[in-house]
From TrEMBL:
Protein name, per record: LacI family DNA-binding transcriptional regulator
All copies of domain Transcriptional regulator LacI/GalR-like sensor, residue ranges: 175-343
Keyword Transcription regulation: yes
Keywords: DNA-binding, Transcription, Transcription regulation
A Pfam family matched in the record: Peripla_BP_3
Origin superkingdom: Bacteria
GO molecular function, a single term: DNA-binding transcription factor activity
Transmembrane segments: none
InterPro entries, alphabetized: HTH_LacI, LacI/GalR-like_sensor, Lambda_DNA-bd_dom_sf, Peripla_BP_I
Keyword DNA-binding: yes
Length: 352
């Protein structure tokens, strides 16, 4: 029996019949379910299976999965641009005809079953938010059967596709600006919670000091807890011990910088008159502090756009030639220093 004859028996047009078995939009779910049920009763299971396969292919073609990997959650809970990042990812995905489904992987629960659940989602690809991941965590994703791109973590020693911030450039820009302002004793406030971005920023700090011929003085490097209130308490405790202070501090993150600003002011130190301060990430609240905080700006919107571009490109390459060896790409997003009011030329500073 032809499709036209089946359509006549089901009291629908041939066009409607074709749209249903090919899973095309524009048909109500009630009509679609009725027709598929009747086809089953008539013994046309092959057409039902074909429609289901078309539906599965449609979903797979249309969906990208955004996966957040949680190791401890402390950094992600304070993440300054998560909503903006999600907005940019969703907007760019729509341009390519995809929608975003979000999932979380908790490292405190068995990870491999969580990875397997991703394989069963019929997504075309995965954008892995890898801020808190360590290199050994990537091994779990060897069981992923769909392409993925890791973001916010370069994994420089691993042959995987990534989109990340050039964190070393950011701290280099901060040090360069301080040097041009006459600072030579430059300290670093780093988080006790390790993520790869913080490690890269610290390396950028040390490399920049060496480039400008400045001494790396371990007395000026302090580790504090990550969170504004915690860093405020930790730095306040250090100040009560009369620890040696440089003329300026660069911080792992704005959260620490704002906590440091509060601690300095509570101890009677003026920013920037007595000590200068630079944050990292350029959070929205950095323009509202007193004084407004100079900070390394991270272009999160273009970061999300680049992530979608990377996974869509990877999907396309694999689709065009599944047997081809696809070369790994690592995209780095540049930073820019936003100068406000928390840095002063060292000749005017009160601490020497």
């Amino acid at each position: 029996m032809t499709n036209r004859e089946l359509a006549h028996m089901l009291k629908i047009s041939p066009a409607t019949f074709s749209m249903i078995i090919n899973n095309k939009p524009g048909i109500s779910s009630k009509t679609r379910e009725r027709v598929l049920h009747q086809l089953g009763e008539m013994g046309y299971d092959n057409l039902i299976k074909s429609a289901q396969q078309e539906q599965q292919a449609f979903v797979q073609q249309q969906m990208l999965c955004f996966v957040v990997y949680l190791r401890h959650g402390r950094v992600l809970n304070q993440h300054p641009f998560f909503l903006l990042l999600m907005e940019s990812i969703e907007a760019q995905a729509r341009k390519f005809g995809y929608y975003i489904m979000m999932r979380t992987i908790d490292s405190h629960s068995p990870v491999r079953p969580q990875i397997e659940s991703l394989n069963q989602m019929n997504a075309s690809g995965v954008i892995l938010f890898a801020t808190e991941m360590l290199e050994e965590d990537i091994e779990y994703f060897s069981g992923l059967t769909i392409p993925y791109v890791a973001i916010d973590n370069d994994f420089s020693h691993l042959n995987i596709n990534t989109v990340s911030i050039n964190n070393q450039l950011g701290t280099h820009q901060a040090i360069e600006y301080l040097v041009h302002q006459g600072h030579q004793a430059i300290g670093y406030l780093q988080s006790e919670d390790y993520i790869s971005s913080f490690g890269e920023r610290e390396r950028g700090y040390k490399e920049a000091l060496a480039r400008f011929g400045l001494e790396l003085d371990p007395r000026y490097i302090y580790r504090v807890r990550y969170a504004e209130e915690s860093s405020y308490l930790d730095i306040s405790a250090l100040l009560r011990e009369n620890v040696p202070l440089p003329t300026a501090f660069v911080c792992d993150d704005d959260t620490i910088a704002v906590g440091a600003l509060r601690a300095f002011q509570a101890a009677g130190l003026r920013v920037p008159e007595d000590i200068s301060l630079i944050g990292f990430n350029d959070r929205p609240n950095t323009s509202l502090t007193q004084p407004p905080l100079t900070s390394v700006n991270v272009p999160r919107y273009s970061f999300g756009t680049a992530a979608v571009d990377a996974i869509v490109s990877l999907i396309g390459k694999i689709k065009n030639d599944p047997s081809a060896i696809v070369r790994t790409t690592k995209t780095r997003i540049g930073t820019q220093l936003t100068v406000r009011g928390s840095v002063r030329p060292v000749t005017d500073a009160g601490i020497n």
